[in-house]
Amino acid sequence: MPNLTHRTLEVNGIELHVAEQGTGQPIVLCHGFPGLWFTWRHQLDALSAAGYRVIAPDMRGYGRSSAPADASSYDREHTVADMVGLLDALDIDQAVFGGHDFGAHLVWDLPAWAPGRVRALMQLSVPRTPRLPVQPSVAFAYLASQHFAHVHYFQEPGVADAELNGSPREFLARILHALSGANRYLDCWEFPSEGNGYLDVLPEPPALPWPWLGEDEFDYYVGEFTRTGFTGGLNWYRAEDAVWTQNEVLHDKPVEVPTVFVAGSKDPVLEMMGRDPFAAMRALVPGLTGTHVVEGAGHFVQMEKPDAVNAILLDFLAGLDG
């Protein structure tokens, strides 16, 4: 990755590690679980080569960034302040923000929480949806009464942490494969919650390398999560009730900045949302300029089909520049 630089910034009371490449209009890319700045490696190369300044942080709780122990430190006030603080630390007034998974959850909220700091959105895998009528933990518990639900399993501090921290290589191989286009993740729902951990319900993955993930790339993930554990990432799930409360007034505020959305055709998020997973997003995001489904990709669309995703993002960015 030519001209890629790394630095650690003092932001919002924590240390935030960022990878940065290129010059020009700034783009901030926010990963989800279980991700790292490295999740965006293909976009760092392609977007910087096209004349953009691409900034990919290890989000709070991950990689080389600080990982506060208390789940309350992962609420929307803290995570928005991280992104605003990042812009301030880099002397950036306004940026294009991209998000994937939990990063997309955060980025959907940024225009309402930090008006004026967001030029546009590039969102992957998680469509904008209306505010839940009940606390997320209540919805998660209902799901768990029907079948295994990782969102509920992750809520109790220490339980999932012990399982995943004890087998980081096995967990990462299983989850990256399970959520990819090579598998149907919702088969996990065939298992009951009672008596099962996450490793019990995730499928056995094929041997590496995979078409979209090399052994050296996988080893980077394993090395980072072996060192840090998964608690920081799990705390994003444990902060969902707080985020829901803090978003009471702002969640359904229309997203009017230019927005592009990309997902894989085999992403379980879309499967869970029914026949028209984008109906609510079209109503909630009047700035939506395009919705793209990449054939054959799963949840990690930007890694599984980087050329297709990069072409979509570059076309969107060119429209902004025009």
From TrEMBL:
Which superkingdom does the taxonomy of this entry point to? Answer: Bacteria
The name this protein goes by in its record: Alpha/beta fold hydrolase
Q: Provide an example Pfam family for this protein.
A: Abhydrolase_1
Q: Which UniProt keywords apply?
A: Hydrolase
| Domain annotation AB hydrolase-1: ranges | 26-126
Record flagged with keyword Hydrolase: yes
Which terms in the Gene Ontology molecular function aspect does this entry carry? hydrolase activity
